[in-house]
Amino acid sequence: MKFIESIKERAKEEKRTIVLPETMDRRVLEATQKVLEEDLAHIILIGDPEEFMKGNEDLHLQGAEIINPHTSELTDIFVKELTELRKEKGMTKEKAYQLLTEDYMYFACMLVKDGKADGVVSGACHSTANTLRPSLQIIKTKPGCELVSAFFLMVVPDCSYGSNGTFIFADSGLVQNPSSSELAAIAASSADSFELLVGEKPYVAMLSHSTKGSASHPDVDKVIEAVKIAKEKYPQYKIDGELQADAALVPSVGESKAKGSPVAGKANVLVFPDLDAGNIGYKLVQRLAKAEAYGPITQGIKAPINDLSRGCSVDDIVGVVAITAVQRKNK
Fold it and tell me: How much is the pTM?
């Protein structure tokens, strides 16, 4: 069974309620129709249906709950709660009302905070900052988590590496230039996410342009220190580095370049040294290898709030909705 099909089956087992606030984007509405047809989740759409259905009358969205912040009785409740929550940051009732009725991501996050929804998927037509800022202000980070990071779940066709071609690439969407301790935290979070979503043992490679001292540079030193921290703080996971990509993935190269490594040649979680490398890496694999790329999926927030690439397809959105449901199902 293909990875995303197995995720969809798990999502169907205990349907969760997922909020899609970007009703101004037809792709989101088309994805809603597909999610409802496949019975993957309950969907809440935020917006004025008279506005977002103009030109989209061919879509069948019966079964989705639609909430218009301008008319909903929840708005006054959320205004009071958001004002109280952010009062030390200067939040006023007027500002809270403006945010909730103009930036639907705030309304979506309040639905999750109050237990009326299980997760949010956004980002089809908004930046990562627009998606994550409200979630960090309202829902906060998960206890014990050092930072919020993001990964792409990559499914590469006809690939013998990783877990039958399935990988996590991190951080490929959020943390620009992680420190050694942040890289270690990203490695642990990504291992946990891989285990949760793929259901197999994670083998985490801390990537570099060097393998086990083959090059000398401060960038290499950062990864070496990250590996040391990760092994000390997260001994439950197989984490090793620094490894070049071929040493991480190809058994013969791993044996040659990093003999004795518990990860070399069988990595399925790739931790990149910075966001440039991670973002470039996932896009290259997606386009050149025709891989399925789901994400960026966030990790480290109390509830699953997931971002989308602005170049996402309808099927990408459907896949991320299913992943979000599974993330919440296992909380």
Answer: 0.85
